[in-house]
Design a protein that fits this description.
One of its GO terms (molecular function) is catalytic activity. The protein is of the alpha+beta class. 32% of the residues lie in helices and 10% in strands.
Amino acid sequence: MVCDNCQKKVGTVATQDVWKSGSRNTVESGGRKLNENKLLTGKSTRYSPYTTKFNKCKVCKATVHQPGGTYCQENNFFSKMSAVIRSLLSLASVAAVHRCNSYAYFSLATPYCSAKQSDEKTKAQTAKPTEDTIFGKIARKEIKVDLLHDDDQCVAFHDVNKQAPSHFLVIPKEPIPQLSACTASHEKLLGHLLIVATQVAKKQGLSDDGYRLVINNGRNACQSVYHLHIHVLGGRQLDWPPG
């Protein structure tokens, strides 16, 4: 005999319980048909041999073999693949943000920190040469930053808006607004800036794998601060052509 507590559990199993007359899952009580398996005929089942109503595939209009289905097997596969691709694209956009912060590499991600690049373009459209700039204040040490190099002609320091794992600037102490404003008298100064750039790059461990020097000159070159400065970028594989 089965106790009352166990009877509740026994009464919910898929097999018939014909030994006790009046049980809710017996044939006599109308709970199921003869030889009926509730696993096949339940409302939540995915397939039932008793079903005669099948939908048409939304794509090819063929009869769908699963009750309640909306796609045939072939088109269901492609719909699932589309969902996977959308998930990968979503993951790629997240990876792009992560790469902007930690400089991790992810092949599906968007270009390096494109949001910051867009901001620089906007600033460059409105920037104009002024008597004083933030770089001028750094050169005069009115604004304190961690200097990578300091001599009587120039200083070098990390760029706060990094575009690579290693990104620093070399600026002259003389307030030259841009490269096109240089004359023959600046020949030695410009050479000195390049030498300092190579020296600091070597200290930063960039000499073996290489690095890039960039001088933005004017609005179309995205110059947003009108104080001559050399960008030195390295620590990752850079793209070509730039911009």
